[in-house]
Write a structure and sequence with these properties.
Layout (H helix, E strand, L loop, with lengths): L2 E4 L9 H11 L16 H8 L5 H19 L9 H10 L3 E5 L4 H10 L8 E3 L12 H10 L6 E5 L2 H9 L3 E5 L13 E3 L7 H9 L1
Parallel strand pairs: 1-2, 1-4, 2-3, 4-5, 5-6
Helix pairs in contact: 1-3, 2-3
């Protein structure tokens, strides 16, 4: 049996610029911007790195505030990635198991799945609160495979971020890079690179898994 696991930010939705805008505007007094290598990482680890002198409670307050601001500015623009809905339908019709494996907080995952009305496609959703370590550690993708009851080698992951690619590879999974947040040239560690989901189908998934 095969499973497909989707990262969320930059994969299900092309929202990188809205996260970058939220970082720049919400943290304007700190002068913090979202660098490319920060994409895909868990908020807890990121806040510890960015605000080492703040308390845990203050860091939680800061990232929750930023995420609430992100949802506010992104909501009028939210739409699925090109070709996503057709691809999800193809996978579901073929009885492929499907999961979301994201470092995003639960509120953001609920926001995307419910606003796009795509929750019914997913058998499992996993976020960093459910594991010990967020990406680039393999925990999120291993937990996804466990809950799907699929061996990691039979899972294929769609990722746009370097931390997520490292996570999926460490979990022993095949990875398709989605060139939305980064140029294709920076996704060379993946098994295949696509611009969007119009460039992939079920046959393509099978070819990658058996390569």
């Amino acid at each position: 049996m095969t499973a497909v696991i989707f990262d969320m930010d930059g994969v299900l939705v092309n929202n990188a610029r809205f996260h970058e805008q939220a970082f720049a505007e919400y943290f304007s007094s700190y002068g913090i911007t979202l660098a490319p290598e920060m994409h895909g990482r868990g908020n807890k680890e990121l806040m510890e790195e960015l605000f080492p002198d703040e308390s845990d409670e203050r860091r939680i307050e800061l990232y929750r505030g930023k995420e609430e601001y992100y949802r506010k500015i992104y909501e009028p623009h939210i739409k699925p990635a090109e070709g996503l809905i057709d691809f999800l339908n193809e996978l579901k019709n073929a009885d492929v198991r499907i999961a979301v494996g994201s470092s995003a907080p639960t509120e953001n995952i609920d926001f995307v799945l419910d606003r796009l009305n795509i929750r019914s496609f997913f058998d499992v959703t996993v976020n960093s609160d459910m594991v010990e370590k967020a990406k680039p550690a393999p925990d999120i993708y291993l937990k996804s495979a466990e809950l799907l009851n699929i061996n990691p080698e039979n899972c294929i992951v769609f990722e746009d971020a370097l931390a997520g690619i490292e996570s999926a590879k460490a979990a022993g999974m095949k990875v398709v890079g989605v060139a939305s947040s980064l140029p294709a040239s920076q996704l060379s560690a993946t098994d295949r690179v696509i611009a969007d989901f119009t460039e992939i189908n079920l046959d393509g998934i099978k070819q990658i898994l058996t390569a």
